[in-house]
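Backbone-to-sequence.
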């Protein structure tokens, strides 16, 4: 069975059109979670104070950094801007939305996957009634080539991870604990919190275990059907079998 993937961009009035037009080097990526939007803003150029003020207005800033590589900001906001959203129209035509939405130079970029070519055609015709639209690509894909991003929504990866565990994981990540060589130790991380080292380590290990467990189902889907064995696991297993 074939599926149909369409990539297109549209231009209409939306919260991010003006800012992306005024700052042509800016890229805005937009994800929708169950109860909020997550916005990632990047630029290869150093931001002005005016731009930073405008980004502050997009939502609650979760992360902000400016270095030689440019600007990187992550914000979180409510879902109020999604009322009468284009995403609802995708669903009307049985089209599966592929996040994130990318905003650049006044255009919104979308990718959808549908189970019938006529659904893609009808969706694009509908969008043309009230938006400027440019179709970038329409492609038939095999069932086996469905993008892996369809399989792993972000909120599922962090399912059952508590706020304390997330805080411990974020502190370790941002402090360079997972870099090689490590830039910090568990004791140093715990000293930056109000909990004992053993308590901090427990939060961190539980977060790691839950994250890997949640990701495991997607890992199996991603590698299903692959005949490659880069680690030689199959051969190693066979070599360890006792001779008859």
């Amino acid at each position: 069975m074939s599926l149909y993937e369409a990539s297109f961009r549209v231009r209409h009035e939306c919260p991010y059109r003006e800012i992306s037009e005024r700052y042509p080097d800016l890229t805005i990526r937009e994800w929708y979670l169950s109860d909020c939007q997550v916005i990632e803003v990047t630029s290869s150029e150093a931001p002005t104070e005016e731009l930073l003020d405008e980004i502050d207005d997009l939502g609650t800033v979760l992360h902000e950094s400016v270095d030689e590589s440019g600007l990187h900001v992550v914000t979180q906001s409510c879902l109020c801007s999604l009322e009468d959203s284009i995403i609802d129209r995708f669903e009307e035509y049985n089209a599966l939305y592929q996040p994130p939405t990318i905003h650049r130079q006044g255009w919104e970029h979308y990718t959808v996957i549908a189970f019938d070519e006529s659904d893609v055609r009808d969706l694009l015709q509908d969008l043309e009634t009230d938006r400027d639209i440019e179709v970038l690509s329409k492609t038939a894909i095999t069932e086996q080539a469905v993008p892996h991003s369809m399989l792993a929504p972000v909120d599922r990866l962090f399912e059952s991870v508590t706020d304390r565990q997330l805080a411990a994981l974020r502190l370790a990540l941002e402090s360079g604990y997972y870099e090689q060589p490590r830039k910090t130790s568990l004791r140093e991380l715990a000293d930056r919190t109000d909990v004992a080292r053993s308590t901090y380590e427990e939060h961190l290990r539980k977060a790691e275990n839950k994250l890997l467990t949640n990701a495991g189902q997607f890992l199996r889907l991603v590698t299903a059907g692959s005949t490659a064995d880069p680690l030689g696991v199959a051969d190693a297993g066979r070599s360890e079998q006792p001779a008859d």
